[in-house]
Amino acid sequence: MSDAFALDDDGEAIGARVEGARHSGESFAKARLVDVEFVRCDLSACDFSEGVWQRVKVIDCRCTSIDLSQTRLQEVTFKDCKLDDANIRLSKLHSVRFDGCVCTNAEFIAAQLEEIAFPGSDLAGANFTQVRCVDVDLRDARLDGLQGVASLSGATIAVDQLFGFASALAQALGITVSTEE
Question: Are 31 and 10 in contact (CB under 8 A)?
């Protein structure tokens, strides 16, 4: 167990458990993380852009405005994290789970999403413009105000989510919905 997160001379962290660390605003750009676990850490506004994360767990962490742009995430779990305003643009995500996370206004723009799940997460206002989806599970996630719905081919939603999603879907397809007769 560690109370601070540090990279080795090669910009890597392998087999580390970091608990209660406060790294708000720090830069870990291009870092390679393998078998790392963050628990109750403050990673808000941290720059992890252009990195590689493999088998990483992020549990009960504050990740507001975290920068994961152009990062490759594989077998990563975010559980009970606050990822509002996260930058996940142009990233490649494979086997990633956002479990009970707040991802409001997160930007997934032009990301590649494969085998992704968002159970119990809040995606209100999140932007999925130009994403590529393969096996993306949005069931049981809050989808209010979702942007880029036209790019969600390959995603699954629940029947009860369809009504709230209908307006954005109609707009994305160029369908005008009118109450006038």
Answer: no
In tens, the pLDDT along 106-153 reads: 999 999 999 999 999 999 999 999 999 999 999 999 998 899 998 999
Using a cut of 0.90, tell me whether the model's pTM lies above it: yes
Residue 72, domain CATH: 2.160.20.80
Q: Can you tell me the distance from the alpha carbon of 82 to that of 159, in angstroms, rounded to the nearest whole number?
A: 27
**Does residue 181 form part of some domain?**
no
Residue 2 resides in a domain: no
Label residues 69-103 b or e (16+ Cβ within 10 Å = b). bbbbbbebbbbbbbbbbbbbbbbbbbebbbeebbb
Note whether 70 and 49 are within 8 A (CB).
Answer: yes
Place of tokens 């305003």: 85
Nearest CA to 76 out of 85, 61, 64 is that of: 61
Measured CA to CA in angstroms, residue 58 lies from 112, 127, 147 at distances of 20, 22, 25
Q: How far apart are CA 163 and CA 57, in angstroms?
A: 33
